[in-house]
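Could you help me review a protein record that somebody else here produced? My question to you is simply how this chain folds and whether the tokens agree. Thanks in advance; the entry in question is below:
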Amino acid sequence: MPALKPGARVAIVAPASGAPVAADDAVQWLLDRGYEPVPMPATRMRMEPPYDFLGGPDEARLSDLHEAFRAPDIGAIWCLQGGFGSWRLLAGLDYALIAANPKPFIGYSDITALHLALQARAGFVTFHGPMLAQDLMAGKAEPTESLAFAMVSGGVPAGAWIVPPPEFAPRVLSPGRATGRLIGGNLALISALMGTPYEIDTQDAVLFLEDVNEHPARLDRMLAQLRAAGKLEGVRAVLLGSFTRLGLGMPDAAAQSLIEPLLMANLRELNVPVLSAWPSGHGDPNLMLPLGARVTLDTARGGLLLEQAVVR
């Protein structure tokens, strides 16, 4: 997949919920960093109730994605924000078109639906990473921005370690070292796509999970669903990202620590390495992860070893 070049054109898309005001700010944010922003039409649209959770009609959001992938002068596709509605696009995507035009595609949260579909049907690395409105323009802590640009521009080569800063070091819940294909994202979206043609493939995977606004009981239920569906049996290692706004009346860091025994109750019998509180997802910072890439999770190092080049 071609790396993002300095000064390249970057498509801004809103495959889920919209943020028309933020789209204008995103244009300036990318200009300030030396890129040529291309806001796609649906980023400026606003739907009426009951579809006001969507950034434009499905047809417009699909067209934006297709045009951004098709255009040879677009160097990357960056999601404006998450929200709701990406799953509505999956059946209408032209996967042959997308597979023939690989380029960095960046987002998370509801965008997990697109990551899973592209992993299943297009077969190239996509990037679970900070979005323009929700993270980058909000000034999330470093290395949120610097790692994102380094990874999509070739600054994180094969053999590099992805390790959070010491103040955001993950916790070891089960020690070890294992290699596999990095896959996953938002647990609620992974759960919602079970039983569909786009459900997650976890065989020989390093499984990454994160979530927001989910009570511990729902997290337990969704993990139990994955376990009952056999989706944990082939996992080589687990990377637990940020679990925030859990409704427990305490700071996010304390709440995540409190729920770790519940998470491990669903994972312990796997006997695989598990890292928790990895700073990716709906927290601060939000470190980019290359979904679909082969990585080694090493709990002693507290990080991921990138086993392959993700852009060239």
